[in-house]
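Appendix B, record 7
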Amino acid sequence: MERPDSTCAAAGGRVPQEVRQRLEDFLAGYCHQIDDGDIDSWPGFFAERCVYEITTRQNVEAGLPIGIMYCEGRGMLEDRIKAMKTANIFEQHVYCHLTGRPEIREEGPASYSLRSNFAIYRTMYTGAAELFATGKYLDTVSLAEGEPFFTRRKVVLDSRSLDTLLVIPF
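Structure tokens (predicted):
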């Protein structure tokens, strides 16, 4: 099997190494901000006009359009964080994201689709840790404004059974 070089084959050509590195750093930064508890910065990873959704593999395979969560626009993401901080009551916990190397494809000028697998461990305030969720991220990221922003982040969970404690974003 041929090993990839510093670029990745893509629908529109090859993704230059510097773009790949920038997108990989963006994805890692996203997970680190959440894992470090900096939830206020979460909406800033998204373009003003964006979609964030969480669904299950079963829903995707059945062609069902509605999943667990759907947010359209950065304003809805900001409202989600505000509700988390002021209205929701939940046990304190933290996440630890483990993500695989993303597959990156150029979709158009300054637009890229990314797919990466993830496992998220959750540690409760008591110290108890568990595997919380596994799945894949299906993303569209724009570099049109010079900085990367999600225009779409679709979280596809492997399991259709999810703990009702879905407070912190994936």
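Remarks on this record: The longest helix spans residues 17-35. The two ends are 33 Å apart (CA to CA).
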